[in-house]
Specification:
By secondary structure, the protein is mostly helical. The protein is built from three helices and three strands, in the order ααβββα.
Length: 100
């Protein structure tokens, strides 16, 4: 493989973009185990506060609650959180417009 091509693949991976087969890369197993623990902690915290969790863990795979898609790496957790923040901002904005 040429150096240019290797560099492009590394840059894509660093940006969290799709791999050549069109799918996002998975985090290494030891990292993914930690992500599962983080997701489970968020699920427990959400349940304790009576809120909907951002994720669900099924069969050792993390899924985004809003899209149902598998989360393959830490960036996926952040993307789910970003979507939730945008949703809350839209709700606050709509609430503010309704109060005007």
């Amino acid at each position: 493989m040429s150096l240019k091509r290797r560099l492009a693949r590394l840059q894509d991976a660093a940006r969290g973009e799709a791999s050549p087969d069109g799918r996002e890369p998975w985090a290494p197993p030891h990292v993914y185990r930690r992500l599962i623990e983080d997701a489970k902690e968020e699920i427990a915290t959400s349940a304790a506060h009576g809120e909907e969790p951002l994720y669900r863990v099924d069969g050792g795979i993390i899924f985004a609650a809003d899209t149902g898609l598998p989360i393959r790496h830490g960036g996926g957790l952040i993307q789910a959180l970003d979507r939730h923040i945008r949703q809350l901002e839209a709700e606050v904005e709509a609430e503010g417009e309704g109060a005007s």
